[in-house]
Design a protein that fits this description.
Elements: E1 4-17, E2 20-28, E3 31-33, E4 37-41, H1 48-55, E5 63-68, E6 71-72, H2 78-88, E7 89-92, H3 104-109, H4 119-132, H5 148-160, E8 166-170, H6 178-195, E9 198-202, H7 206-209, E10 214-219, E11 222-223, H8 236-241
Helix pairs in contact: 4-5, 5-6
Length: about 250
Amino acid sequence: MSQTVIQTSKLTKEFLRDEFHILALKDVEIEIQKGEFVALMGPSGSGKSTLLHLIAAMDRPTQGEIRVLGEDLRALSDREVARWRNAHIGFVFQSFNLIPVLTALENVELPLKLTNLKRKERFKHAATALKLVGLDDRLGHLPRQLSGGQEQRVAIARAIVTDPDLILTDEPTGNLDANSAQEVLTLLSRLNREYGKTIVMVTHDPHAARFASRIRYLEKGELLPPGQVPADWALPGMLKGAESASE
């Protein structure tokens, strides 16, 4: 497999809202290599989550090219995309997206139901993933019996249970207190450093972004050159974070 995991060329996404055309992304060109931990930052509405969704094939571009793990995502049917995503992508949402009536173990097992593994094997893999995130003593707990940080770690376990090539996270600490956020970021960093997982994280938090090996900024749908920060973000904390934004 090529060391280039994500490559886009003139990637553009436009939404139609009533009679209005909204340009969410314009001519985005980015390359991300295997084993990188990249943070995408920018003001609200800058297009960072839209870019993440295109990488995950959760949406399709209006124009331009996007290749992820060597696959031209535009050429895949919806059915092929679903299979490809389940095999290669782990997605972590800000709002956890756990099923309230399922235990931690059952939530983590869900992606494995699309594989050929038998139930006993699925539970074994799910238990291993929960152990990796430090929750092997919470297998039978429902989401309401867990703290926010624990819920997000269950969500990360669910994202990694299929051993994906790429982990995508959308504001993974947005709903967490400082201590829980630190635990989640440390876990993501460990997955990157110790297990070689390629991670792309959308965040507005400069502290979270510093866990990444590289930071790229978006503004009004455009990817800024390496090292450049949106003008209204030019604060000391942001400028310090931008030191790692080089290619």
